[in-house]
Amino acid sequence: MRGIFITGTDTGVGKTLVATLLVRGLLDRGFPAVHFKPVQSGFVAVSGREYPADLAFSWSLIEPEGDLAAYCAQRSLYAFRDPIAPDHAAEKEGRGIEPAAIVARAKKLAKAHLLITEGAGGVAVPLTANYLMADLIADLGQPALIVARPGLGTLNHTHLTVAYLRQRGVTVAGIVISGYDPNDPIAQRNRKQLSEMNGTPTVGILPRIIGLDTERPGWLAGVVAGTLQEKFDWDTIMAIIKGPAR
Ligand SMILES: Nc1ncnc2c1ncn2[C@@H]1O[C@H](COP(=O)(O)OP(=O)(O)O)[C@@H](O)[C@H]1O
Ligand SMILES: [Mg+2]
Fold this sequence. Notes:
- The chain is α/β, with parallel strands linked by helices and 246 residues long.
- The protein has one domain (3-242): Rossmann fold, CATH 3.40.50.
- It contains 10 helices and 11 strands.
- The strands form 3 sheets. A 7-stranded parallel sheet has the order 5-2-6-1-9-10-11, with helices on both faces. It has a two-stranded antiparallel ribbon with strand order 3-4. A two-stranded antiparallel ribbon has the order 7-8.
- Helix 1 packs parallel to helix 2 (53-62) and helix 7 (154-167) packs parallel to helix 8 (185-198).
- It is globular, with a radius of gyration of 17 Å.
- Bound molecules: adenosine-5'-diphosphate and magnesium ion (MG).
- Residues 8, 11-17, 178-179, 206, 208-209, 212-214 line the site of adenosine-5'-diphosphate.
């Protein structure tokens, strides 16, 4: 399926930030990209009503004039109130997650859109007792981008994530570092080693943005977002989207 799956080494690493910026950048380049967030835990309030948090954030940069409820309805399938693990949240609400329903929705959306799919947490997060996020990535057949932290611990987390995805036959197309501080020597060293260690390109290095809070839709003003777009290697991202030459 065309598009990219945005996963990460953990929850809270910058997946929503990256997905939002990629969709914005692709739309600006004339591609019909959408932020697809099939499984979401956690809502935020916008104008007195509650919406799935990650989509509310991307909406605020992508379609701020549009209807947020309609925006979320198209792009989400399982949205749970509590910001906890998806299978736990589903259990609390007496619902079950059906992977086949996610794949069916993705296929439908993909007829007219380029899907920038965002996972939840990392690759080994359970969606059901025997179906993990990595299984969904494999079933969707999208190349994966891994969002990683810059500092101590990231080599281990990223390497494990890459290996786990490759074991399932997922193409790991690249890494994006989020929260980079150019004055941190550990981050500087990791930046080089992440790519070398995993044989995969680093397609974006987003700086640490003081005060960023993706649970506050509208936080990312157009001008900040514009500056961040320059931190991506768009040639490589476009090549990932076009897929391997046949
Ligand atoms: N580049 C960054 N600069 C500063 N803070 C960041 C950055 N990337 C992520 N964060 C922090 O992590 C939080 C979660 O980011 P988010 O994109 O929602 O992660 P995820 O989707 O992986 O859970 C943000 O609200 C912010 O506090
Ligand atoms: Mg997110």
